[in-house]
Amino acid sequence: MVKLKLSSSIAEVQLEHTTNTQEPNIHSEVQEPKESPAPPKTLAAAQLDELMAHLSDMQAEVAVKADISKKHVPGKQDHGVSLDSMLGGLEQDLQDLGIATVPKGHCASCRKPIAGKVIHALGQSWHPEHFVCTHCKEEVGFRPFFERSGVAYCPEDYHRLFSPRCAYCAAPIRDRVLTAMDQTWHPEHFFCSHCGEVFGPEGFHEKDKKPYCRKDFLAMFSPKCSGCSRPVLENYLSALDTVWHPECFVCGDCFSSFSTGSFFELDGRPFCELHYHHRRGTLCHGCGQPITGRCISAMGHKFHPEHFVCAFCLTQLNKGIFQEQNDKTYCQPCFNKLFSL
């Protein structure tokens, strides 16, 4: 009796003989070889042929499936469906061949068992092709990703959607961020709005929501001294509706400081009393001092009343009774004595 045995792992046919195997009849007479019809198959031979044919059909089917999987590249629209069917078919083929498959969990996306590579992320397991960016749906796979609200984002979408924007270039800030004036900046984009220099240890000054270095801020926006036109930084004086460095607030003619604390204004500039009256023409022509009270005007000059006198006898003159000679005033008697013929 012929016994057939098929191994589960290797398609191998083994013939084993039992102890009660019947031997064929042996003829003692040797006949000359000649063509004759094939002898009828025994039952064992027929079973063996049938088994081999079945194995050949299985190999051909597996080869066809493998060839189709190599040639067919699914598009984006049927990628998930075709890949799932391929994986399911492969798993079924392995089971048909007697190879057990142990799932590595269930995919959080498709809820199907994971038989091959697996990604563990966000506290769940995924098929690599099902672990995708929640915004653009591109496969993340084993690449870096960002998590927000329990879902995954590719770096490009995460930065575009959630990263702070630079107040200068409006691009997402991916690495270091600088916060100033209630805004965020790339460190290399936070610089003086006037000169373009990056700020040093001295910091910056803000004007109209723009940052400036100290030098440009003072030059452009700080009050200027009316005496020297330079920025006023520390101590200053307020006078004539403007500010002054203390050392710049002096008489506009003699540059002397106002030690008494009083000054005279003329055309928006400060003057001492003497030069104020000099510019206004109110100095006494007799004594050269300012006239603050009554005055006498004569010969294009102004005089203190007590200084309007005869140039020869020094007698005080009345405005209507005097004589003039060589820009000097004389009383009538002295004029007659000195200049009469």
From TrEMBL:
Keyword terms: Cell junction, Cytoplasm, LIM domain, Metal-binding, Phosphoprotein, Repeat, Zinc
Chain positions covered by the region annotation Disordered: 14-40
Molecular function per GO: metal ion binding
Location in or out of the cell: Cell junction, Focal adhesion; Cytoplasm
A Gene Ontology BP annotation from the UniProt entry: endothelial cell migration
Major location (coarse): other
Single GO cellular component term: cytoskeleton
SMART domains linked to this entry: LIM
Database matches in InterPro entries: Tgfb1i1/Leupaxin/TGFB1I1, Znf_LIM
Residue ranges constituting the LIM zinc-binding domain according to the UniProt record: 105-164, 165-222, 223-282, 283-341
Bias kind Polar residues: ranges: 14-25
PROSITE patterns in UniProt: LIM_DOMAIN_1 (PS00478), LIM_DOMAIN_2 (PS50023)
Family: Belongs to the paxillin family.
Protein name: Leupaxin isoform X4
Organism name: Heterocephalus glaber (Naked mole rat)
